[in-house]
Amino acid sequence: MANIRFPRSGTMQFWPRKRAKRIYARVRSRPKVDSVKLLEFAGYKVGMVHALVLDLTPNSMTKNEEKTVPLTIIECPPLKIASVRFYKKTNNGLKIVSECFVGKDKDLLRKVPKVKKQKSIEEFEPKLEEFDDITILVYTQPKKSGVRKKKPEIFEVKLSGSVKEKYNFIKERINKEINVEEVFTEGVLVDVHAVTKGKGIQGPVKRFGIALKSHKSQKGQRAVGSLGPWNAQAHILYRVAHAGQTGFHQRTEYNKLIVKIVDPKEIEKKSGYEHYGQIHEKAILLKGSVPGAKKRLIRMVQAIRPNKKKQEQLQLIKIIK
């Protein structure tokens, strides 16, 4: 076959490469945890800084030495419960049997109109044995962050524990704020779910990383060398790299280390962060980069496959702004 230029990253690594349905990601898998708590939290991406840290990792070549690492700041305003969902097992898996709306904030009602005839959550307590799972819909409070928008994001969050333990946990926190310290601690690995930056329609060189052809090529330098064989095929295979949507894809990055959970005063800047503004609530410092543009919602879940052998232990010394 003549002059086929295969992509460096492989066209089949992510498929289909289409735009995400929502501006914030969907989480499909969560780990099992012993204690009763939320299995995830969410925050807004502020930007990146680099920091001076002390490496306390055993068997590390830089043990007890100072080094600089890149950090991503994610501001985490408290979450609040919008509604409680009750599930029951069927032949087709878990199905929602009933839902109890408990959110009363005006900002929430802008996005979800309140149901007129609504049961209170206490009415479900005698029927707990009938249900196989309980989850909650939570909503963010962007007005408290540097994002400063009116409408919150609403998404479903699972809890750990038995049905009774989940019910008691939820009942105590109705109309109360859930802070990031209740879910995550420093030095823990998390999986990051986000929607990447949108780049519109791009050619195959940028989209798939194929090689440029010779400058003497007759049918374009930034195109694939061959569309496939001439015989036994009446169409172009979908695996051939072509121009199309690039970016605004849902992606998951595994095992991001929480270096520290900081107060806004520890990382404040007089001029504010570029394209974000001032930080008003507690923030998570994650080692490395995170997908998505600034002000985008990032969902963090406890690591589903933590790499215990290579887990680092970093002590924050100073943030270099």
Q: Give the helix tally.
A: 3
The class by helix and strand makeup works out as: mainly beta
The tally of beta strands, per DSSP, is 13
CATH topology descriptor of the domain at 79-178: Ribosomal Protein L3, Chain: B, domain 2
- Overall 3D shape: globular
Mind telling me the CATH class of the domain at 79-178? Alpha Beta
Assembly level: single chain
- Which sequence of strands runs across the widest sheet? 1-2-11-10-7-12
Structural description of this entry:
It is built from three helices and 13 strands, in the order ββββαββαββαβββββ. It is globular and about 75 Å long. A hairpin with a 2-residue loop joins strand 3 and strand 4. The protein has 321 residues and is mainly β. Strands 1-2-11-10-7-12 form a six-stranded antiparallel barrel. A four-stranded antiparallel β-sheet has the order 4-3-5-6, with helices on one face. The chain has a domain at 79-178: Ribosomal Protein L3, Chain: B, domain 2. The protein has helices at 106-111, 163-172, 204-208, and strands at 40-55, 66-75, 80-90, 93-101, 133-139, 154-157, 189-195, 198-202, 244-247, 250-262, 283-287, 297-302, 314-320.
